């Protein structure tokens, strides 16, 4: 397989990114519904103050992979970090080092921006992803538990 070419996503990539998000959710048997719309993704990635950034990886001009990440901040370091929200390599392109190439690229962005951390979450049942992340030197943080409020629960809490 040929080398992965990595580029920032552009607004014309929104339909591709939507397709890749659905492919990722299906491949990982994502336990929650995928509700993102074209409009929401476009706004989140390409409005004047985007919430996140996306990369597209191509092999010979064919979309092979994508990643979405955003900046975070830790008061304990006083510095920003990068949080990887999604990383996906289409099955026909897996096993050729493309996932690692994306991680190396994003780590380079983190270094350029002076980030103290580069973090992400993985589903406990995604053994392949967990092995991959371990192979690139990542360590699991067992001392943290992720908590979440969604949709109506956020509004309920906001009402006091």
Characterize the structure shown:
- This protein has helices spanning 14-27, 38-46, 98-112, 127-135, 152-158; strands spanning 5-8, 53-59, 62-74, 79-89, 117-120.
- The chain has one domain: Aminopeptidase.
- Strand 2 (53-59) and strand 3 form a beta hairpin.
- The radius of gyration is 16 Å and the shape is globular.
- Strands 1-2-3-4-5 form a 5-stranded mixed beta sheet, sandwiched between helices.
- The model has no long low-confidence stretch (mean pLDDT 94).
- It is α+β, with helices and mostly antiparallel strands and 160 residues long.
Question: How would you describe this structure in keywords?
Answer:
Aminopeptidase; alpha+beta; globular; 160 residues; 5 helices; five-stranded mixed beta sheet; 24% strand
The level of helicity is 25-40%
Which residue ranges are poorly predicted, with pLDDT under 50 across at least 5 consecutive positions? Answer: none
User: Could you tell me the number of beta strands?
Assistant: 5
Please give the CATH architecture.
3-Layer(aba) Sandwich
Continuous helix count? 5
Q: Evaluate the radius of gyration.
A: 16 Å
The CATH topology turns out to be Aminopeptidase
Corresponding CATH superfamily: Gcn5-related N-acetyltransferase (GNAT)
Look at the helices and sheets and give the structural class: alpha+beta
Name the CATH class. Answer: Alpha Beta
* Major sheet: 5 strands, mixed
Main sheet: which strands, in order across?
1-2-3-4-5
List the helices and strands and how they pair.
Blueprint: E1 5-8, H1 14-27, H2 38-46, E2 53-59, E3 62-74, E4 79-89, H3 98-112, E5 117-120, H4 127-135, H5 152-158
Parallel strand pairs: 4-5
Antiparallel strand pairs: 1-2, 2-3, 3-4
């Amino acid at each position: 397989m040929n080398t992965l070419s990595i580029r920032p996503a552009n607004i014309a990539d929104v339909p591709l990114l939507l397709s890749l998000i659905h492919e990722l959710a299906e491949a990982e048997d994502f336990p929650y519904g995928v509700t993102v719309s074209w409009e929401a993704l476009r706004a989140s990635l390409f409005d004047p103050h985007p919430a996140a950034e996306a990369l597209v990886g191509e092999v010979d001009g064919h979309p092979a992979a994508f990643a979405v990440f955003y900046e975070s901040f830790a008061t304990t370091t006083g510095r920003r970090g990068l949080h990887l929200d999604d990383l996906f390599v289409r099955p026909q392109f897996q096993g050729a080092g493309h996932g690692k190439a994306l991680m190396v690229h994003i780590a380079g962005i983190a270094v350029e921006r002076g980030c103290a951390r580069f973090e992400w979450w993985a589903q406990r049942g995604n053994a392949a992803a967990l092995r991959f992340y371990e192979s690139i030197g990542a360590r699991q943080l067992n001392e943290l538990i992720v908590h979440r409020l969604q949709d109506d629960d956020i509004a309920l809490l906001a009402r006091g």
